[in-house]
Each structure stands twice: as C-alpha cells, then as structure tokens.
Task: inverse folding
C-alpha cells in the first residue's frame, strides 16, 4: 500500500513483540555508554513502529537516563511544578518525580495531597497535551519498586489501531468535521479526584488545543489524539462533546487494544510515543502502601503537530 513504510530491519537490537499490534521488548543495547547512532536509529525505528518499547535492567542512573532521553530531542522540565516553591526531590529538573516518595524519603502520607494529584495518572492519558507544545516521547525508569505482585504496572493503549478499526462512516465523519479538542491538566485531575478538586474550574486555566484526528508523522499512520485531559471538543454542545469523547475513549481503551507491562526490577525503562499510544498507572503509586520511585524524562514533540493550534508560548501548566 502506498504511504505505508515497510518493516524496518534490525541489525543491532533484538525485538520481542509483546502484543499482536504494538509494544516490544528491546534487548542488545549497551547503556553503559552513550548509545551509538546506528543503534539509536534502530530504537527510533522500533518506537515508530511499536509505540511502546521496554528495556529491562538498563543500569541507567539519573544522569545517563537524562542523557539517553536527550538523544531523542529537546527535554521538558519540572519548573512549572516547582514554581510555587515546592522543592524538587531529584537531582535534575529534567526528571519528573512520578512515584510516591516525599522529600524526606518516606512514602506519601495518607493525607498528602500529591496522592490526589497522582490519581489522574490512573486514567488513560498522554503526557503534557495541555501545554502549548505537547510531549513526544516519554522515558520512565523504575528506581524503586513495590514487591512483585503488589501492582504498579503501567498500561498502554494502541490508539492507531483503535482508530483504524472504528466504523468507516465514523472515521469519515471525524475526518470531515476535523474536530479540535481542548486538553486540560485540571480536567483530568478533577475527573479522577472530584472531591479534592471540587473548587477548581478548568475553564480558569489555559488548555492545549489539538486536532482530534491526525497523521502520526513518523509512521505515516492515521490516529486520534485523545486522552483523559480532553475537557471538551470545540463546536459541539457540552452533551454532544461528552458523548463523542466517551464513545472514542471507550473504544480506544477496550482490552484488545491494551497492553499491561509489569516492572520487574529497578533500572527497567519504558519508552513510549505519546502521539501514538495512551498510558495509565495501575495502582501502586497512589494506593501507596509500598514505595514506588519512578522517574520520567519527557521529550518535547518535534513533529509538525507539536504545537497543535496553540500559541508558541513558554507558559506551561503545573501542580503547586
Ligand atoms: C508518567 C505516568 C505511569 C506510571 O510517568 O507519565 O503516567 O505507571 N506514569 O507511573
Ligand atoms: Mn503520564
């Protein structure tokens, strides 16, 4: 078929497929040294095709994790989350602190409000779609994990395949209407923890505007850019907007499109492409009986759709 890239050939890395339509475990990468160009190019080809790639027991520390992530492009940082004066626990502002460990090294107390914020990560989402420039790749590394069998996996949803398999009349309608969705950090926080965020009105904060149906530039495949951050779809009544969002979100998160990846040991790293898959945390970090120290480097999208319909501003959203 025209436009479809042929399957890449991998000479330097080994691929184990994890699901019929997406997801791969990659071995054969030596993380003790900067990843050479020819190996890195195969990793890029793999993430383009598979959407999510797992690297087991990388041995990466914070500095090498950041350096590996920087090979993919310009990195985002946590400064919007610390602007209110909260200290950052990690050595580098380019590592997002997404586990459940407090500054003093203890697990979040039951009443810690960050538990409430983290609940939003349990909804299928993409990273930073609410910011003017969205995230492209995310690289999440386990530093400390709950005991085996106690939860804390990460789920992924194959949105490109989900889009392909929508009824063709609906796909045609979506393409023709070319809807724009407004993404809000506060909307997903509020959906996941309504009592905590009862007084927050997402309309009071900036939202990220992106086309709903898009072409994933790297693979050439059509996809939807959806996430729990979507507050509304422009041009529809609130009821119609909610109904369309629910229909598409429900479709894309059916079990046949979902891959659950377990974390096996500290040093495991999962790389995903926020513009072709959604993800969510499964228990663990917010149920919080066990320590789960997870660190994420986030690469600003470098594709032509990175800024969506947003002004190219540096104003990013964060939690206080
Ligand atoms: C993230 C995230 C999920 C998890 O790091 O962006 O959503 O399982 N993490 O910790
Ligand atoms: Mn996330």
Result:
């Amino acid at each position: 078929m025209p436009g479809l890239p042929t399957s890449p050939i991998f000479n330097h890395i080994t691929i184990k497929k994890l699901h019929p339509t997406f997801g791969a475990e990659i071995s054969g990468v030596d993380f003790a040294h900067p990843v050479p160009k020819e190996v890195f190019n195969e990793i890029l080809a793999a993430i383009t095709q598979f959407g999510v790639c797992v690297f087991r027991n990388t041995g990466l520390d914070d500095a090498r994790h950041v350096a590996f992530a920087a090979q993919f492009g310009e990195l985002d940082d946590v400064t919007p989350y610390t602007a209110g004066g909260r200290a950052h626990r990690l050595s580098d502002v380019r590592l997002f602190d997404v586990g459940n460990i407090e500054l003093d090294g203890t697990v979040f107390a039951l009443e810690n409000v960050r538990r409430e914020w983290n609940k939003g990560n349990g909804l299928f989402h993409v990273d930073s779609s609410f910011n003017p420039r969205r995230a492209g790749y995310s690289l999440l590394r386990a530093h400390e994990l709950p005991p085996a069998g106690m939860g804390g996996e990460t789920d992924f949803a194959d949105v490109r395949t989900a889009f392909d398999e929508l009824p063709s009349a609906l796909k045609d309608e979506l393409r023709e209407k070319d809807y724009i969705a407004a993404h809000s950090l506060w909307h997903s926080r509020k959906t996941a923890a309504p009592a905590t965020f009862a007084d927050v009105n997402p309309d009071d904060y900036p939202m990220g505007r992106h086309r709903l149906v898009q072409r994933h530039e790297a693979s050439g495949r059509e996809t939807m850019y959806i996430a729990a951050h979507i507050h509304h779809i422009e041009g529809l009544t609130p009821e119609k907007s909610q109904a369309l969002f629910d229909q598409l979100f429900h479709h894309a998160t059916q079990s046949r499109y979902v891959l659950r990846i377990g974390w096996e040991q500290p040093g495991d790293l999962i790389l995903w492409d926020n513009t072709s898959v959604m993800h969510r945390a499964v228990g663990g970090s917010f149920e919080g009986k066990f320590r789960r120290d997870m660190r994420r480097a986030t690469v600003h999208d470098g594709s032509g759709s990175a800024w969506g319909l947003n002004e190219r501003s540096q104003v990013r959203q964060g939690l206080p």
